[in-house]
Design a protein that fits this description.
Number of helices: 7
Oligomer: single chain
Structural class: alpha/beta
Largest sheet: 7 strands, mixed
Number of domains: 1
CATH class: Alpha Beta
Order of helices and strands: HHEHEHEHEHEHEE
Helix content: 40-55%
CATH topology: Rossmann fold
CATH superfamily: Vaccinia Virus protein VP39
Shape: globular
Strand order of the largest sheet: 3-2-1-4-5-7-6
Number of strands: 7
Amino acid sequence: MNNSLKRLLQELEIFGRTHDGYYNISADTGEFFYILVLISKAKNVLEVGTSDGYSTIWLGKAAKQNKGKITTIEISEHKVKMAAYNFKRAKLSNIKIVQEDALQEIPKLKGKFDFLFLDAVKEDYINYFKLAYPKLTKGAVIVADNAIMFEKYMRDYLSYVRKNKNLKSVLVPIGSGVEFSLKLK
């Protein structure tokens, strides 16, 4: 990773910690996602919840190395504009940002995804997942942030992915907790 991209990520880390409403993943979670995208060879990534684009940059950088792309959905117009500016600064042209309610947008998406990242309204994780599930390839990686910090808001989702026979799921104690799942069928 080049120095200008490292500086941008550090700037966004600080911004997320110092501005209400911009809840970025931790740097170690970003590194973890970057590695997951690379080793899974993911080429079509879906992110629900863009914020200022910090996590999208980690995912987009790895997807680019796989000759892939990322679609990210964010409802806030202000955050979409900020994220788009940050993607330009990161020199990542493989990111499509959609300003929409993810519950409305996911059913409209075309194609299949081999990596899904959930980081929006915690109580809606189960709904995002159920809408995205038919669009996930066999072997798709699913990661859901805040599985420790906001577990009480994610109980339906966590119970569902942990008991689903078509998934293998485990809690990874990194950042604020990541539920890591693999689509088996």
